[in-house]
Amino acid sequence: MTGPQMGRGGGRAFPSKMPKLDKKTFGRLMALIWSEHKVRLVVVVVSILASSLASVAGSVFLRILIDSYITPMAAQGGAASFKALIEALMKMALIYACGVIATYTYNRLMVTVSQRTLKSIRDTMFAHMQSLPIKYFDTREHGDLMSLYTNDTDTLRQMVTQSIPNFISSIVTVIAIFIAMVVTSWHLTLVVLLSLTSMLFITRGIARKSGQHFMAQQKAIGAANGYIEELVNAQKVVQTFTYEERAIERFAGLNDELFENAFNANRYANILMPIMGNISYIQYVVVAIVGGTLALSGLAPLTLGAIASFLQLSRTINMPINQMAQQLNAVAMALAGTRRIFDLLDAESEADSGHITLTHATRAEDGSLLPTCDSSTCVWAWHDEQKGTLTPLSGHVRLIDVDFGYSDEKLVLKDVSIDAQPGKKIALVGPTGAGKTTITNLINRFYDLADGKIRYDGININRIKKGELRRSLGVVLQDVHLFSDTVMENIRYGRLDATDDEVIEAAKMANADFFISHLPQGYQTELAASGNSLSQGQRQLISIARAIVANPPVLVLDEATSSIDTYTEAVVQQGMDALMAGRTVFVIAHRLSTIRNADTIMVLDDGTVIEAGTHEQLMERQGQYWRLYTGVFELE
Questions:
Q1: Could you tell me which of 308, 218, 189 has the C-alpha nearest to residue 13?
Q2: Residues 161 and 233 both lie in one domain
Q3: Rounded distance, CA 99 to CA 38, Å?
Q4: How confident is the model over 365-379, as pLDDT tens digits?
Q5: When comparing pLDDT for 579 and 39, which is higher?
Q6: Angle, CA 215 vertex, CA 211 and CA 218 arms, to 5°
Q7: Final residue belonging to a domain, choices 182, 200, 216
Q8: H or E segment at 612?
Q9: What is the mean pLDDT of the chain?
């Protein structure tokens, strides 16, 4: 099938065959549940046993009822007393009541167990996800990760709440019924076993066909859902390029595939129960004929009550056997999702061997740093926890002969060296894919180097704790992400302890205060997801304000003003210049007019620095930068 691949929101691909029971994953899940719910699970197992035995007791009691009460009373005629019969019925009613209570108990407890387990797993998943490296998210579909919290946890809930208890109940019921059948008549038990064998043989093929189509149906649902979400997010593009008819055609193809798979899956599933029902009716008739024949011929000591009881048992055993097959498939499918959850939990957290932290210190009269802080004399410093030394934070960043590739097959950066002196503005320009953003990713340690070194104030960044390193860097990206919260809190995200006045001052520096003040509730205006209620330029201004309030010694501006009009850019640039004063700044820009005042402009091409210098120096050389600036050819 042609068309776009599944993206965010799309489900995962399912295998074409029915999944096998993953014993390792099942054991791990049960160990997890048992560690938190020992008492509840013991009560659940006891309740399941009681419920199953109570259901079988009714069929066994039928023999006693007929042989010990009804038959003798029929012989006595009008002189018969109903007292003993009523007492027996009351006892049976009590047993059934105990069964009902037991069923309610284990169902209620399993809801508690499943919900608490899911809450614990979701909390653990989310917490662990925060510790994973950026590479983990770059190599996986967002929709695939989201399905862990939706589809996979939902199938896990159904398995814990329904499938496992029903499977255990079915096993206990089948064992109890089989024992009761053998005790009642081993002759008739052989007849039932032959019937069940033929039933399983016939339904096995049908169930396999149905299962395969159900798998394909789930895959088709994921594809359709993924395409719908993709089109919802791209409605402006769809309508701008009048793509509606083509979109309808593609969705119709996905929907047709879903229809075919769902139709075939339900066709096989719907004929399965009638076939099993008819076989059970045939079994019932055969058992009645054979039982009557054995009783009349005297070949087996069968009473009327025994035959009636056995007939009821033979009908009862079919349902739990069918449920066992269904629940086993449901458990196997749920374990596939559970394994994906465990794969996330087993994913290796981002390694961090750093031991140098960011702290406040006081500069003494002789220029040395003291590990104390007075609000009037506080300065940032790097604290080496192993040596106990303090190094002033100046923002001097050096890349020395750096090589890097996102995969082993291809290097993105090749022998790149950059010396960003404190307070200097370094501009990175070049065509798309030249490696500009990769450099900033390496400075943040989102990825580790293949070769070379990066030093921050003379310290190898591998020795700095990643959280402390990133706290000292302010980043403004081209793609702005705003949270579903107030404007105030979105800006405060840059520094969570910032006061309201500091947030407002940062917004003023970014020239965002004017439009924020004209929002319905000003800074307390609630933003929709990703700030869709704002223009792209307004979102960018909030992002810049967020970086300003963080007040970092080093700034990384990745196309920070790309979505702002020329007039606003000029005003914002004034605030940005004030912000950048005394700070080391890395600027990535395609709009070359914004980086003319950079102290050093570095031109990259295919991962290599091919030119470096000021704007005037590079223009005089009339090399690559001159061609980019004068428009001899445009950036890709």
A1: 218
A2: no
A3: 22
A4: 777 777 777 655 678
A5: 39
A6: 135
A7: 182
A8: strand 608-613
A9: 82
Q: Look at the block and give the residue holding tokens 């010694």.
A: 553
Distance CA 436, CA 590 (A): 11
pLDDT at residue number 79: 60
What's the pLDDT band for 12 if we cut at 50, 70, 90?
Answer: very low
Sequence-ordered alpha helix ranges (H) in 455-509: 466-471, 487-492, 500-509
Q: What Rg, from alpha-carbon coordinates, does the chain have? A: 36
Helix (H, G, I), strand (E, B) or coil at 570: helix
Q: Give how far Cα 164 sits from Cα of 81, 116, 169, 340, Å.
A: 46, 16, 8, 19
Adjacency order of strands within the sheet including 451-456: 413-420, 397-404, 451-456, 459-460
**Cα separations (Å) of 492 from 282, 354, 489, 543, 607?**
74, 27, 5, 10, 36
Give the Cα separation of 118 and 159 in Å (integer): 11
Residues 6+ apart with CB under 8 A from 243: 237
pLDDT above 90 (res 101): yes
Question: pLDDT tens for residues 415-437?
Answer: 999 999 988 889 998 888 888 88
Q: What's the total number of domains in the chain? A: 4
Residues 6+ positions from 352 with CB-CB distance below 8 Å: 465, 466, 467
Return the closest-CA partner of residue 343 out of 13, 19, 24: 24
235 lies in the same domain as 109: no
Question: Quick one: which H or E segment has residue 171?
Answer: helix 164-184
pLDDT at 627 over 60: yes
Same domain, 229 and 272: yes
Same domain (yes/no): 508, 366: no
CB–CB of 429/590 below 8 Å? Answer: yes
d(CA 320, CA 175): 10
pLDDT tens digits for 18-53?
A: 445 678 888 899 999 998 899 999 999 999 999 888
Give the C-alpha separation, 607 to 405, whole Å: 10
Q: What does the block give as tokens for 624? A: 């690559």
Q: Identify the domain boundary among 301, 321, 347.
A: 301
User: What domain range is 248 assigned to?
Assistant: 186-301
Instruction: Decide: pTM greater than 0.70.
Output: yes
Q: Residue 574 corresponds to which tokens in the numbers above?
A: 């004034």
pLDDT value for 561: 67
Is the C-alpha dihedral spanning 321, 324, 327, 329 positive or negative?
negative
Q: What is the H or E stretch that residue 384 is in?
A: strand 378-384
Cβ atoms of 572 and 397 within 8 Å: the answer is no
Strand partners, 530: none
| Three-state secondary-structure class, residue 96 | helix
In a domain, 294, yes or no: yes
End-to-end CA distance of the chain: 31
The alpha carbon dihedral of 365, 366, 372, 375 has a sign of positive
Contacts of 82 (CB under 8 A, 6+ apart): 73
Res. 610: pLDDT tops 60: yes
- Burial class from Cβ neighbours inside 10 Å (0-12, 13-18, 19+) for residue 111 reads middle
Closest C-alpha among 358, 346, 431, 385 to residue 607: 431
